[in-house]
Amino acid sequence: MxxxxxxxxxERSIFILREARSKFKNIAALWSMGKDSTTMLALARxxxxxxxxxxxxxxxxxxxxPETYKFRDELTRKWKLNLIVAKSEIKPExxxxxxxxxxxxxxxxxxxKQYKFDALIVSIRRDEHGVRAKERVFSPRDKxxxxxxxxxxxxxxxxxxxxxxxxxxxxxxxxxxxxxxxIWNYIKKEHIPVNPxxxxxxxxxxxxxxxxxxxxxxxxNAKNVDDIIKELKTTTVEERSGREQDKEKEYVMQKLRALxxx
Amino acid sequence: xxxxxxxMLGHKDHGKSTLIGSILxxxxxVSNTRIEEAKKYSEKLGKPFEPAFILDSLEEERExxxxxxxxxxxxxxKDLAFEFIDVPGHEELIKNMMSGASFAxxxxxxxxxxxxxxxxKQTKRHVFVAKMLGIENLIVAVNKMDTVNYDENIYNKIAxxxxxxxxxxxxxxxxxxxxISAYKGxxxxxxxxxxxxxxxxxxxxxxxRLIKGADKKDENRFNKLRAVVQGFIDNDNKKLISAKxxxxxxxxxxxxxxxxxxxRNAKKIILKGKxxxxxxxxxSVAIEIDKEIENPRGLVIAKKGEExxxxxxxxxxxFTTAKLTPSSKITIKILGNEVKCNKLNIIKQIDATxxxxxxxxxxxxxxxxxxxxxxxxxxxxxxxxxLKSMGRFSFYIENKFGGIGIVE
Lengths: 262, 408
What we know:
Chain A is an alpha/beta fold. Chain A has helices at residues 6-23, 35-47, 66-78, 96-115, 180-190, 225-234, 244-247, 252-258; strands spanning 27-30, 56-60, 83-87, 119-121, 138-141, 169-172, 204-205, 218-219. In chain A, the strands form 2 sheets. A 6-stranded mixed beta sheet of chain A has the order 3-2-1-4-6-5.
């Protein structure tokens, strides 16, 4: 896994976050309490002089891990976050694609409408998935949250388009250029708090965090941030292989994203 | 590790995605899961294994055998990491090609040697546009050598012809030529047994040397302070503005903002949350100023006596995706500003595939040209040849993306 220059990545992300802040009136960020969106909040604190100046949304289906809720509440207090919990209903009969597609996306739609957000910061990275690699830094969604991946706006140099088409919103992707190992190197350098589920217990750890129903831990003895960095330098296992929705069937991610999923 | 962005260029089906797929496999830069997935899918479509599927991950891309939008993939080579940017080769997708290629300084141009393929209009157009986007180093990869029995003559003909085109359009940068088979992975990291006549290095080594050589001569750069203001840091405190340093260094003390000749005192420079004495090129800073500025977005910060150009008229070389006439309603996007153009004077059209000039008073789609623009208001800028980041813009025709321009 290629380790990039953290200073450059940090500069670019700060630029993007500030660009979003000055171009949109009412922005929010998604926070899953995972390593990426928590890193994004740490970057926002740097960009905006110690505070996160926008609300953070947790799409809560009620079946996240207990550790995740605890982590959320502790960091919310510590960083004085403006947390919005958007409850999504979980139906036992649906799982995987339909669960993420229907429940989570529906809850997100509701909260976006309620607060009239015009931009949403989402901490996806190109190296996570072939379809996410096709994303723009500023990526418009129409009012039905549809991603028109066949006709994305031009994005030249560091000039991001901010046109809102069809009364939708714009997704902001400040971490698009980061690799998984860059995130961990940055967590180490900046002492960013992380959800304990990432660390090995009884020979297993979560490498990518979803909810309790669709995430499985992977074999690992990495007990701290240093161990994780060491592990990532040699691993050949895909980051999201513990996520059910990614391997369920072909183009699942494409379909989920086209429908407005994160 | 230093990451060097390298964009692919070339006509559709000349092997851009296939080449990246092959490189990823040959340098062990892609997981087995992803290779297996691409293999399985190739079988499902009844095709032999297609390395391009490692990159092309949209359903429409695989079914249709084309790249719709640009994507990226990284590969390690020696002490460098190449970030390959794949772009679509289709004419109608040139907007996506530009979006991808604008991040790179180095490009690999794919030209198929296969009978009936060869140098096409889009091959040349991509080079022309890439040069405008800032590409300085170019590898011309003559691909599909396996389909012509590794014939030296065919390779030479293509290389000479591209060479003539590059000199016609005054490409100017460093250029290397390499014969390859992307599909078979030949002459990518190892010298090929079947092209003994080729005296150069394999593709990745040529690329590596090209980049290392370019680093060394990274010369007399522009070093006056230029920083562009993004906006306020916080809505409650309008004395704190954010800016990106494009060249030179920003320091505490007197600063000037353009257009408008606004003089301010920079009381504090904050970089990543910490107060600093100065900050250099590439930094995103917060600046505490002594007196509020209304609407600071897009203003250019400089030092007194080192003003940028401030004007409402400029001459530019442009490339357009749609037809341009003197009555076209265009808006240019430059340094975070969107400025309407009041008057458009078309000086000449340039055929991006030959360099030929014509004066018809209009510019056809997918052609270049020289324009004289009169803008609604003053902007601060530099000539592209002086400072790239302040001399380039994109333009919109009736709110639709039109193309790119560089200030002459």
